[in-house]
Design a protein that fits this description.
- The protein is an alpha/beta fold.
- The chain has a domain at 2-135 and 168-193: NAD(P)-binding Rossmann-like Domain (Rossmann fold, 3-Layer(aba) Sandwich).
- Helix content is 48%, strand content 15%.
- It has 13 helices and eleven strands.
- The chain has a seven-stranded parallel beta sheet, sandwiched between helices.
- Helix 9 (222-231) packs antiparallel against helix 10 (236-251).
- The radius of gyration is 19 Å and the shape is globular.
- The termini are far apart.
């Protein structure tokens, strides 16, 4: 049995969808029956609880041979992920698949990537069989920009001239399904990207091409962007972490693509144009 955490989020839901389609038995750990209902409809066994609660995490891990650790970024993320790793070892889990990021390297001082680095090290030292999944900038981040794209033709992100290797989380979920259901992936770390290294101005040009009307990149000062995040209710820790992520992009932390998706899946990764076309009703 496979346990999927974070299954009500975008990436976790896509992993659940793929496991369901393949007829692979899996369990999800979700906070409420309401969040579990659509997953149960996919055939998932639903465990109610929270990674912050040790008792419910223990119960969810009972009888599990493989687990996928996906968590939204948060201030207590490192503590919860290291505790989950330890509980997985205790429960006899054979393989832990951890969703990290390609930017999670020691020289990147972003609070989120520093947590990922620490958790990766903890997992490697725990003795559990592990697979690291390290994607780059998710194309699905553009979904939150859809109103500005539709209404003003603007893609607003403070990235300067920095580049991103836009990556479709559907490709990432397919890789996660593969490493869970095929042999030979334990002890491997996979850096996943889309096919192109793009500035946000390049991304805006892709939107312009597919939508047939001009979309331009707007590059606000970081502090102005931070104020917008505060205005929508993000806590200060999260505001700081997001701004540090954009600072890293401005400095060029994402400076390459990888062939890993194509090597693992036997097909090219989805392009940004593919993504826009697939979600065109959202952006029109």
């Amino acid at each position: 049995m496979i346990l999927v955490t974070g299954a009500s989020g975008k990436t976790g839901t896509e992993v659940a969808r793929r496991l369901s389609a393949a007829g692979t038995p899996f369990r999800v750990l979700v906070r409420s029956a309401e969040k579990g209902a659509p997953l149960a409809a996919m055939g998932a066994e639903v465990a109610l609880g929270d990674l912050a609660d040790e008792a419910s995490a223990r119960q969810a891990l009972d009888g599990i041979s493989k687990a996928v650790l996906i968590m939204p970024n948060g201030e207590q993320q490192q503590a919860m992920e290291t505790r989950f790793t330890d509980l997985s070892v205790e429960a006899g889990v054979r393989q832990l698949v951890y969703l990290s990021s390609i930017e999670s390297v020691p020289e990147n001082k972003n609070p989120i990537t520093q947590m990922h680095v620490a958790v990766q090290n903890h997992i490697r030292q725990s003795g559990i069989g592990w697979t690291m999944i390290r994607p780059s900038f998710f194309m699905q981040m553009f979904m939150s920009s859809a109103p500005a794209i539709r209404e003003r033709g603007e893609l607003v992100m403070p990235t300067g001239q920095g580049t991103v290797a836009t990556t479709d989380l559907r490709d990432v979920a397919e890789v996660i399904e593969l490493v869970l259901t095929a042999d030979g992936h334990t002890g491997k770390s996979y850096d996943l990207t889309g096919p192109e290294l793009l500035t946000l101005a390049d991304c805006a040009a892709r939107f312009t091409k597919v939508l047939g009307r001009e979309v331009r990149h707007v590059d606000p000062p970081l502090e102005a962007f931070a104020e917008r995040l505060r205005a929508v209710g993000l806590p200060e820790w999260r505001v700081n972490a997001v701004c540090k992520e954009f600072e890293a992009i401005q400095r060029g932390i994402i400076d390459h693509t990888t062939p890993t998706v194509a090597e693992l899946l036997g097909r090219p990764p989805r392009s940004l144009e593919d993504f826009i076309t697939d979600h065109i009703d959202l952006f029109r």
